[in-house]
Amino acid sequence: MACEPPPPLLKKPKSPAAAPTTICALGDDLLREIFLHLPSLPTLVRAALTCHSSLRAVRSSPAFRRRFRELHSPPLLGLFLDIFESDTPAFCPVRLRSDPDLTAAVRGTDFLLTRLPDDEGFAPEWVIRACHDGYAVLISF
């Protein structure tokens, strides 16, 4: 019995290198699916503003925005406390250092209520009457 040499291996033709995928090559539906996995609304806004394709994908679909809001509840930025016996309630932020998006949101707002109207020579006392959906109802007396 003579040993026969193994048959020659067939060489597969090399396929051309795949072109890199760009954001523009992804469809709006795929972009929206990716965006649903982002952790918060500020992160979605930053991602959407990176290019026209991303912004169009978010802008063009009210159903996507509704679904995103259903999956991502708004974060608690802080609490108004009326324990310091001052004329206006004090705002106490929560988790400032753990989330840069929340930190930026708190930093960019007027939680010290400096824009409340006051009469000349008279500082009214403000009391929080109710809070709902991110709005605070204040009364003065």
Kindly describe this structure.
- This protein is α+β, with helices and mostly antiparallel strands and 141 residues long.
- Helix content is 30%, strand content 15%.
- Strands 1-2 form a two-stranded antiparallel sheet.
- Helix 1 crosses helix 3.
- The longest helix has 10 residues.
Please give the structural blueprint:
Elements: H1 28-35, H2 41-48, H3 52-59, H4 62-71, E1 78-81, E2 90-93, H5 100-107, E3 126-132, E4 135-140
Antiparallel strand pairs: 1-2, 3-4
Report low-confidence residues grouped into runs of 5 or more.
none
Radius of gyration: 28 Å
The biggest beta sheet, please? 2 strands, antiparallel
Cα(first) to Cα(last) distance is 111 Å
Helix content bin: 25-40%
Give the strand content: 5-15%
Structure annotation, total helices: 5
Output the strand order for the largest sheet. 1-2
Give the rounded overall mean pLDDT. Answer: 78
Based on Cα principal axes, name the global outline: elongated
Question: What would you call the structural class?
Answer: alpha+beta
Identify the quaternary structure here.
single chain
What order do the SSEs take from the amino end to the carboxyl end, as H and E?
A: HHHHEEHEE
Overall strand count:
4
Short description:
The chain is of the alpha+beta class.
